[in-house]
Each structure stands twice: as C-alpha cells, then as structure tokens.
C-alpha cells in the first residue's frame, strides 16, 4: 500500500531545542493530519489541516499544509521531556488515511 | 471526548489458534478501522467498515477477517494465528471525513 515519506526517522535533541519534521507524497491529499504516539499508547491527534497553505498552531506545535498539497511539516518549539514519542503524519485519501512511517523523538534534559 | 476501547492491552496466543480482538467506540461513529503497527513500517490498514455488516479490505487483509454486527463494535479475527502476526494492533473510528480516533492498542504475541 501507499506510504508517505516522513523524515527524519529519529531525532535526539536537548530540552529547549526546536524540532522540525516533514512528510512528502507523490499524491495530492485534501487533508493532512499529525498524530503523536506515546510509548504503549495509541496515536492521539495533534493537528488537522484542511486547506492548502494553511498554517495551524496548537500550543508549542505548528503545522503547515503545503501549497502543492503533497507535503506538510510539523514544528515543535522549546521542546520538553514529555514531547518524547513517535510523531506520525497522515494524508486523507478519499476513504482512508495513508500514514508516514513516523519520527521518533527523544528529548534529553 | 471520543473513547475507543480495545478489549485487551496484551495478549499471548499459540500458532494455529483462532484469535478475536474486540474494539468498541462510544461516539456513534459509522467508520471503524483496524491497523497493525510494526517497527519501521508505520501503520498499515487491515480492514475497515463504513456501517453495520459492511467491510472493506485494506492494504494487508490476508490472514484476517472482521465482523461488525453492531455499530459500536468492530472485531478483528485471526482465523489461524501465525508467528508473523505478532504485532501491535490498533483500532480507530471516525465520523464522515473527520480525523480518526485511536484506541490504546493490543500488543499480540503469537508463540
């Protein structure tokens, strides 16, 4: 099945640093979603983007829906230890979601 | 808040057994989904359902079946479990084209 190219695969950063991750696709999507998965838990929705060019914030998180509708990025500012987890992008393809392979984030104090 | 509940967090079964994974959602969502999650492969869609008694194959349906007899419940069935079905299984639900909400997952080990 189709998958999105998500990068980087993993990040090891120090508390307080900013983080940036992105997803690209060969297909156009009408919706981009960003989820976070804590260890041992299911993914939780962080941000939903519905319009090309849209920039949306949720606290320290900011995500953008690319103009071409084939990409999206997620930024986390001033990281804290509880930001640790796996971040997934997902594109809405008609009736189902296509997921990226995830970015594993580790934050060191 | 949407609540998606998966019946077991951890499950250990033997090769050849018939395994049932249950998922219940409390928000009257018509859409329900089963994924499996493996390291490096992300989330892969096994089956999904738009309504009671309806089911559609996802990307990796082989070795699995599903049942949706009631709107709130979506069951994943491993007809004859094999070791390559050891994985984390995630259930999700959604309303229309709204984002999907996930349960906490069932970590299944097949010995």
Describe it.
- The complex is a heterodimer of chains A (109) and B (111).
- Chain A is mostly beta strands and 109 residues long.
- Chain A has no helices and eleven strands.
- Chain A has strands spanning 5-7, 10-14, 19-24, 32-37, 44-49, 55-58, 61-65, 71-76, 85-93, 96-99, 103-108.
- In chain A, the strands form two sheets. In chain A, strands 2, 4, 5, 9, 10 and 11 form a six-stranded mixed β-sheet that branches.
- The N and C termini of chain A lie far apart (39 Å).
- The mean pLDDT of chain A is 93.
- Chain B starts with a strand and ends with a strand.
- Chain B is mostly beta strands.
- In chain B, a hairpin with a 3-residue loop joins strand 4 (31-38) and strand 5 (42-49).
- In chain B, strands 2, 4, 5, 6, 9, 10 and 11 form a seven-stranded mixed β-sheet that branches. A four-stranded antiparallel β-sheet of chain B has the order 1-3-8-7, with no helix packed on it.
- Chain B is globular and about 35 Å long.
- Chains A and B meet through strand 5 and strand 10 of A and strand 5 and strand 10 of B.
Summed up, what is this model?
The complex is a heterodimer of chains A (109) and B (111). Chain A has 109 residues and is mainly β.
What order do the helices and strands come in, and which of them pair?
The complex is a heterodimer of chains A (109) and B (111).
Chain A (H helix, E strand, L loop, with lengths): L4 E3 L2 E5 L4 E6 L7 E6 L6 E6 L5 E4 L2 E5 L5 E6 L8 E9 L2 E4 L3 E6 L1
Parallel strand pairs in A: 2-11
Antiparallel strand pairs in A: 1-3, 3-8, 4-5, 4-9, 6-7, 7-8, 9-10, 9-11
Chain B lengths: L3 E3 L3 E4 L5 E7 L5 E8 L3 E8 L6 E2 L6 E7 L2 E6 L8 E8 L6 E2 L3 E5 L1
Parallel strand pairs in B: 2-11
Antiparallel strand pairs in B: 1-3, 3-8, 4-5, 4-9, 5-6, 7-8, 9-10, 9-11
């Amino acid at each position: 099945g189709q998958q999105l190219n998500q990068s980087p695969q993993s990040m090891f950063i120090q508390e307080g640093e900013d983080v940036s991750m992105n997803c690209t696709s060969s297909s156009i999507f009408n919706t981009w979603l960003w989820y976070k998965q804590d260890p041992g838990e299911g993914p939780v929705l962080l941000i939903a983007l519905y319009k090309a060019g849209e920039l949306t914030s949720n606290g320290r998180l900011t995500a953008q829906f690319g103009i071409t509708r084939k990409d999206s990025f997620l930024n986390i500012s001033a990281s804290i230890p509880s930001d640790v987890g796996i971040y997934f992008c997902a594109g809405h393809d008609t009736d189902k979601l296509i997921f990226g392979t995830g970015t594993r984030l580790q934050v060191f104090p | 808040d949407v609540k998606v509940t998966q019946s077991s967090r951890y499950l250990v079964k033997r090769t050849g057994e018939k395994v049932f994974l249950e998922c219940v959602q409390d928000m009257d969502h018509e859409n329900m989904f089963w994924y499996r999650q493996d390291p490096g492969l992300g989330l892969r869609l096994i089956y999904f359902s738009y309504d009671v008694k309806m089911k559609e194959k996802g990307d990796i349906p082989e070795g699995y079946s599903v049942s949706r007899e009631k709107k709130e419940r979506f069951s994943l069935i491993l007809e004859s479990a094999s070791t390559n079905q050891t994985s984390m299984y995630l259930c999700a639900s959604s309303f229309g084209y709204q984002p999907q909400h996930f349960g906490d997952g069932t970590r299944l080990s097949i010995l």
